[in-house]
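User: Structure with zinc ion, tokens only please.
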Amino acid sequence: MNDPDCLFCKIIAGDIGADIVYETDQVLAFRDINPQAPTHVLIIPRRHVATINDIAEDQAEDEIGRLYAAAAHIAKDAGIADDGYRVVMNCNEAAGQTVFHLHLHLLGGRNLAWPPG
Ligand code: 5GP
Ligand code: ZN
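Assistant:
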């Protein structure tokens, strides 16, 4: 396991259950336990990285790119790609990050207010 104290590492290891919707060698995506929209999926790297600030600069394009590629794939599968959806990554407390394993929120299936508040 990447980090034995990390909730999302436990999901990756299969120690905690999750409703997995998509996976590759490097990415796992599962439904948020407290959904804020009809489609609310969390897309995470299998490798433990705590926040955006902790991504190695020379890996940032690959690390983030993979998450966005997965988001587009899942949105198309869910039938929300044409209507539109939002992807959000919170970094640290002021932005509301509560789980310190990098994750991209994919939200869709309803109209989303902007600015988010
Ligand atoms: P953050 O606030 O860090 O951006 O997002 C963390 C997200 O993880 C929240 O939307 C929260 O509902 C979700 N979450 C927390 N614990 C669990 C869990 O055990 N399983 C799943 N599927 N989602 C979780
Ligand atoms: Zn982790």
